[in-house]
Amino acid sequence: MFKENNNINIQLSLVHKGKVRDIYDLNDNYLIVASDRISAFDCIIPTLIENKGKILHKLSMFWFNMTKSIVKNHVITGDFNHFPKSLQNILYLRDRSMIVKKAKRINIECIVRGYITGSAWTEYSKTGKICNIKLENNLKEFSKLQTPIFTPSSKEEHGKHDQNISFTDMINILGTQTAEKIRKISLTLYNKISKYTFSKGLILADTKLEFGLYNDELILIDEIFTPDSSRFWEVEKYNKEGIPNDSLDKQYVRDYLNSIQWNRKPPIPTLPDNIVKKTIMKYMDVYEKLTGKKFNYV
User: Fold this and answer.
1) Where are the beta strands (DSSP E) in the chain?
2) Contacts for 17 with CB less than 8 Å, ≥ 6 apart
3) Residue-averaged pLDDT of the chain
4) Are residues 85 and 147 in the same domain?
5) 292 Cβ contact list (under 8 Å, min separation 6)
6) Which of 116, 110, 146 is nearest to 129 (CA)?
7) Cβ neighbours of residue 286 under 8 Å, at least 6 residues apart?
8) Residue 164 has what DSSP assignment?
9) What is the domain range of residue 45?
10) Percentage of residues in the chain having pLDDT higher than 90
């Protein structure tokens, strides 16, 4: 339920409520709304990060425009002024919503890693592999990989943790042609965007992409290359010798939750004001560095 600026309530049909994004049915299309919620360890944190959804939206629109020559995407419009008049009455939607094609989502998280960290580091430490890909010996956490690797995972629902799968598993799920096409596009996108981010002073350590089918054509959906779906490190501060990097993404929230020794079970802790403020500053920093535009609060 959204409240109009003239105090009239308009109810839209909710299709899916995600950890951050909500999807509504517009008959022929979907409306995707980026909220100010933040998640960590597969849990939605009770504390909102004001303006976060607007940054995610604006940055995704920036990337969708930059990458459309590589792969088509689901965006019809992200410009609030081009929304139907009925939606323009819902001021909350401005700068955080897009109208998109009704694509059929492919239930695979398409992860590309240029550096080893996070769950990939945990798996490598135990097996010397990531998603059954054998890597060179003696890598340290945060090391740059010789070449970026594609490491898919299952996309789980209802708060379950996504599970890393091998590319062979992905072929068994999607078929060889679709799996190989997704891998090729994902690596192409990562290589293009990581070069761009590096030129702006940021390392794109890894990223998550999602794809769908629209009229039997593979397209890019959801969000892309945001601080929610990617790890960004500053080039000048990059530590490659196993020393933690100061991430400009939601890793900062994960680190805080680890510091208070939360057991990742209810009750889910709230975030103190200083963590909220530092988090939104990191998101704003990424947006401004990458787009060259000042983020203006509305």
Assistant:
1) 2-3, 9-10, 13-17, 21-26, 29-34, 39-40, 43-44, 75-77, 97-101, 104-105, 108-115, 129-130, 133-134, 144-150, 153-154, 202-214, 217-221, 230-234
2) 23
3) 92
4) no
5) none
6) 116
7) 55, 59, 202, 227, 232, 248, 249
8) B
9) 2-102
10) 86
Write out pLDDT tens, residues 83-129.
Answer: 999 999 899 999 999 999 999 999 999 999 999 998 899 999 999 99
**Rounded average pLDDT over 55-65:** 98
CB atoms within 10 A of CB 203: 22
160 and 98 in a common domain: no
Distance, CA of 239 to CA of 217 (rounded, Å)? 41
Tell me, yes or no, whether 83 lies in a domain: yes
| Pair (88, 109) in one structural domain | no
Question: How many beta carbons lie within 10 A of that of residue 138, not counting itself?
Answer: 7
Side chain identity at residue 186, one-letter code: S
Q: How far is residue 40 CA from its own chain's centroid?
A: 12
User: How far apart, in Å, do the first and last CA atoms of the chain sit?
Assistant: 21
Residue pointed to by tokens 């299709």: 15
Q: For position 294, what pLDDT does the model report?
A: 94
Query: What's the pLDDT tens digit per position in 29-56?
Result: 999 999 999 999 989 999 999 999 999 9
CATH code, domain carrying 140:
3.30.470.20
